[in-house]
Design a protein that fits this description.
Layout lengths: L5 H12 L5 H31 L2 H4 L3 E2 L2 E2 L6 H26 L7 H21 L4 E5 L13 E5 H21 L4 H23 L5 H27 L4 H30 L5 H26 L19 H36 L4 H14 L36
Antiparallel strand pairs: 1-2, 3-4
Helix pairs in contact: 1-2, 4-5, 4-10, 5-6, 5-10, 6-7, 7-8, 8-9, 9-10, 11-12
Length: 409
């Protein structure tokens, strides 16, 4: 609310300024203040209605496996999770829409980036619905009423999200740098170690959680080294556009990932801040590390051919070997049909012309037509009943004297 008791303030102002030359202006100002108060009251009512519509915490309680998390999100935290989920989903559709404008061979980075934000959208929807968590006994009891209690709500679905999306983020970056596949697979394995140790540490109620936290931080240091040193050096020779794209996206990722252990330490690890503050802390980090990162990466790849990065992706419709093969199949089918026609014509011509005469010339014409129309064009004309040398054509030969074959009539 802008004023606690606005009606008394307005009356006093009107009484004091009555009878002055600025009376008209004062009345106008009072009307404007009344309009502002009306707008403020209307917005407050709408926000209250919106908050009442979020019934997730009533439907999905804080009790899981017989334990109740007394340090849990409120409706404000749930609303924030739903808002981030909507942003992630919208980003996924935008990235897919941008992918449709590219050739299918050039969509790999669009698809990877869209998958990142789509998985994150599902995870944030789950957390906004007050699902995907388990109550864990806190190691440090706090006096702050927002973080005081015995069991804290720990969202394991967040780590499932990271287990899927962080390797995809690394895949985006390392493919941009043109890193070899063995290095990419090894970095993804180290990333999984980082995520799993973070999850195990969050689920451990004792001081041993900090041991897993140390393992995760060591894995993070190695990944940061790969991005800042190895991958950067590998991207420089690939071209100025590739170098800039990797430099911007890699630097953003390295800086943000360094902050995640701090968030873990004050949230699941140390139970310092409230779950609603945890939602804002992680939500802002994920918003910068996923949709903003994705937009920056796709913008950087707008004129980069994946073939320059060693990504020779074959498209079936444009593959010349496939199209040439299909063309050859059609040619063979047409050739087979032509040969079949030649065989039929030769067979018919040989027998018809041969049976039309009763003398030597008639027989010779039959043999000649059969041999020329059938065998000469690739067909298999039937041989006549009486064998005759293949060199005889109309009673003549090209290698010997001309003679007429003996025919029994």
């Amino acid at each position: 609310m802008i004023f606690s008791r606005p009606e008394f303030l307005l009356v006093n102002i009107s009484s004091y300024m009555r009878g002055t030359r600025n009376h008209y202006r004062i009345i106008k100002t009072i009307n404007q203040l009344q309009n502002i108060l009306a707008i403020d009251n209307d917005m407050t009512c709408k926000m209250s209605d919106l908050a009442r519509r979020n019934n997730a915490l009533n439907l999905n309680t804080n009790t899981v496996n017989g334990r109740t998390a007394d340090i849990a999100i409120t409706t404000r935290g749930s609303d924030f999770y739903f808002a981030i989920s909507a942003v992630m989903a919208l980003s996924a559709f935008i990235f897919i829409g941008l992918a449709m404008r590219k050739h299918r061979r050039d969509r790999i980075f669009h698809y990877i980036t869209a998958a990142i934000v789509f998985v994150a959208a599902i995870a944030y929807f789950t957390m906004g619905s007050n699902l995907g968590f388990t109550p864990i006994a806190v190691e440090y009891a706090r006096s702050d009423p927002r973080a005081s209690g015995v069991y804290r709500e720990v969202f394991y679905v967040r780590y499932i999200d990271w287990f899927i999306t962080t390797p995809l983020l690394l895949l985006d970056l390392l493919l941009t740098a043109g890193m070899p596949w063995p290095t990419i697979l090894w970095d993804i394995l180290v990333d999984w170690i980082m995520i799993v140790t973070g999850l195990v540490g969050a689920l451990v109620p004792s001081v041993y959680k900090w041991g897993y936290f140390t393992f995760g931080c060591a894995a993070l240091v190695y990944i940061i080294y790969q991005l800042v040193w190895e991958a950067r050096r590998h991207a420089i020779p690939l071209g100025d556009d590739i170098r800039k794209c990797f430099l911007y996206c890699g630097s953003l990722t390295a800086l943000l990932w360094i902050v995640y252990p701090i968030a873990w330490g004050v949230c699941e690890g140390g139970n310092i801040i409230a779950p609603d503050s945890e939602a804002v802390f992680y939500g802002v980090l994920d918003f910068l590390a996923k949709p903003i990162f994705g937009a920056l990466l796709i913008w950087g790849h707008r004129n980069i051919d994946p073939a320059r990065l060693g990504l020779s992706i074959r498209d079936y419709d444009d593959d010349p070997s496939v199209s040439g093969h299909m063309h050859g199949v059609h040619e063979k089918q047409r050739a087979a049909g032509a040969a079949s026609n030649c065989h039929t014509d030769g067979h018919r011509g040989g027998h018809i012309n041969g049976s039309s005469g009763t003398d030597t010339a008639g027989y010779s014409n039959g043999v000649t037509t059969g041999f020329q129309d059938g065998a000469g064009t690739g067909g298999n004309a039937d041989r006549p009943i009486v064998d005759a040398p293949s060199s005889h054509i109309n009673g003549a030969t090209t290698n010997g004297p001309t003679h007429t074959p003996n025919v029994v009539v």
